[in-house]
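Late entry, written up from scratch paper. The run itself happened at the end of the previous shift, but nothing got recorded in the book at the time, so transcribing now.
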Amino acid sequence: MPEERFRPVVGANFAWIYGDSVDETLAVAPELGFKWYLSSTAFLTFLAEYRFFFDSASDAGSAFEDGQFAYSLGFGYRF
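Output as recorded:
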């Protein structure tokens, strides 16, 4: 088992959004969360991210103000 059962997580998500029912755009999301180890191989994760969408780098500053929070809960297994 990892020495610490509770571990903080910091990350970033970069994405390209596309599809028939959406406008194509870039998305960026800084993330914070944690992993909680249930055993040496199994863990739960919780992440909170702040997503914002923009079409070009010059739009990124104003897009940040119109972002949205997203939360996820997951289960992982190390092998």
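The chain has a mean pLDDT of 86.
(Scratch paper discarded after transcription.)
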